[in-house]
Structure formats: structure tokens, C-alpha cells
Amino acid sequence: MIGIDIGNQSSFVAVVKDCGVETVDNDYSLRATSSVVAFSSRNRILGVAAANQQTSNLTNTISSFKPLLGLRWEDFFVLDEVQRVPYKLVPHPSGGVAVQVCYFGEERVYSMEHITAMLLTGLKVTTETVLKSVIKNCVMAKFQNANAILKNVKKNMATNVICPHFQNANASVFSAILEFRLADVEIS
Prior knowledge:
Elements: E1 2-6, E2 10-17, E3 20-23, E4 33-34, E5 36-39, E6 44-46, H1 47-52, E7 61-63, H2 76-84, E8 88-91, E9 97-103, E10 106-111, H3 112-131, E11 137-141, H4 148-162, E12 165-169, H5 173-176
Helix pairs in contact: 3-4
């Protein structure tokens, strides 16, 4: 079982290992992975690599997107963020918030939930590579000030992207993961 804590600036993945909790290192041997997703004419870039190229690809690098999850386009906070962020926020057809980017030379629109799912996918792939096993269970730290819509968004992302056996955690991921038994994951 793994635990995930998605932050506005950084994300962490932890695993129960050797009767303790160990933070999983990313591709750069860092424990913290930048909560950043970027798009280029050739590929999608996640985490540290996306943060590293932010100044050269400002309008196609999405960061600080967590507070926008589950919000409606008309929300006052969203209208304020439109003026603040360097990337282009647009209304999503569902009424939520989306971002418009240039990806493979085309203008594309992705919801904030889709951007978060991209980050989660990257965290999952990196973690499976490091652990040399398939993730079957996960715990995800509770989003601060989460409303019912945001809780459902998070559950849908985690269930569809990471694993079918998803659990919410009320505490930080590092303490919450201890509450659940390590199941279905063999660590070599």
C-alpha cells in the first residue's frame, strides 16, 4: 500500500516498508515531487522536469492548480486566479475550471481534475518503478477544506488513475498509512 499527499507546490508518496514508513524518491532522487504539469510540442512533462522548464515554457506549465479543483468557473477565487496565473484558465463545458495549453502544436483544453490525474499517473509510474511492483492499494491525504464535490473528484481520480482500492485519510499521508495494513504489495 502506498500513501499520497498532493500539495499545492509538492507531492509526496510513501510506502510501508520494513515495519516503517518510507518516502519514495522520484526520478531525481528527491522525496518531494513538484506538483507541476507542462506541455510541449513533443511531450507532456511532469514533476521536477516540468518545474525545471517553467521559465522557458510559462504559458504551458501548470502549477498551483490544486485550489482550483472542484470549483465552478463563476467562483470569486477562480476569477481572481485568472488574473494571477501565467497560463490561460478557461471555463470547462461542465461548468468547472480548465486550462488551455498548446500540446503537440494544437490548442487543447484540460480540466483541473484531468491535470491532477496526469500528475497522479506520473507519481504512480515512478513509484511502481522504484518499488518494482504494481500498486493495488493506496491512501490519499485529505484535501484541506474539501467540500463534497472535491471529495468525489479526488476519489474518482484516485480510483481511476491509481488503484481500485482507494481509501481517504484524515491525517497526513505519513501517519494515515500506518492505520492500514500492507496488502497485496510485495516489495523486493
